[in-house]
């Protein structure tokens, strides 16, 4: 747990609120799926609308089987929904899991923004002279 001490105060700032529920394996699958640039490119294409697997595969410089394997990873993460119409498989984007991942990230962005703002304010604040010592003054003697 991280506490930030305020200058001139002995009280720590309250800890951040707990992060939103991460849904464990589901969030892990989403982040694993979007870690690959080809899968992110597939999501970008599907964000424009529904595509059949063949037309989607034709947009990438990899084999049909390669695209199909990427699509299966996206399906397991819940990011793509497949609909079978006759012999054609149609794919479309499911953005809900991305929203959940964004909420989880946003919590930590707000947490670090607040910490960095406090650090910036501390660094930009005019320097105060050290507090006066109480008691006898310290006299340093020179060595011969």
Binned strand content: 5-15%
Structural class: mainly alpha
**Major pleated sheet:** 3 strands, antiparallel
Helix content: 40-55%
> What's the number of helices?
5
Q: How does CATH name the architecture of the domain at 25-100?
A: Orthogonal Bundle
Outline: rod-shaped
Number of strand elements: 3
- Give the full name of the CATH homologous superfamily of the domain at 25-100: Winged helix-like DNA-binding domain superfamily/Winged helix DNA-binding domain
Could you tell me the mean pLDDT? 84
Look up the CATH topology of the domain at 25-100: Arc Repressor Mutant, subunit A
**Regions with pLDDT < 50 over 5+ consecutive residues?**
1-6
In short:
By secondary structure, this protein is mainly alpha-helical.
Describe this structure in words.
- The chain is mostly helical.
- The chain has a domain at 25-100: Orthogonal Bundle (Arc Repressor Mutant, subunit A).
- 47% of the residues lie in helices and 10% in strands.
- The protein has helices at residues 25-34, 37-46, 53-57, 64-76, 96-124; strands at residues 51-52, 80-85, 88-93.
- It has a three-stranded antiparallel β-sheet.
- A hairpin with a 2-residue loop joins strand 2 and strand 3 (88-93).
- Helix 1 packs antiparallel against helix 4 and helix 1 (25-34) packs across helix 5 (96-124).
- The relative contact order is 0.14.
- Mean pLDDT is 84; it is low at 1-6.
Overview features:
single chain, 144 residues, mainly alpha, Arc Repressor Mutant, subunit A, three-stranded antiparallel β-sheet, 47% helix, 10% strand, rod-shaped, disordered N terminus
């Amino acid at each position: 747990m991280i506490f930030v001490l305020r200058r001139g105060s002995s009280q720590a700032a309250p800890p951040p609120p707990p992060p939103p529920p991460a849904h464990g394996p589901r969030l892990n699958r989403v982040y694993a799926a979007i870690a690959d640039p080809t899968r992110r490119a597939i999501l970008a294409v599907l964000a424009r609308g529904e595509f059949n697997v063949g037309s989607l595969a034709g947009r990438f410089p990899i084999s049909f089987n390669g695209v199909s394997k990427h699509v299966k990873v996206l399906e397991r993460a819940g990011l793509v929904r497949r609909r079978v119409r006759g012999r054609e498989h149609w794919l479309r984007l499911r953005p809900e899991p991305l929203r959940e991942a964004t909420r989880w990230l946003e919590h930590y962005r707000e947490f670090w923004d607040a910490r960095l703002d406090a650090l910036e304010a501390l660094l930009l604040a005019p320097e105060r002279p050290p507090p006066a010592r109480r008691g006898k003054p310290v006299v340093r003697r020179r060595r011969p």
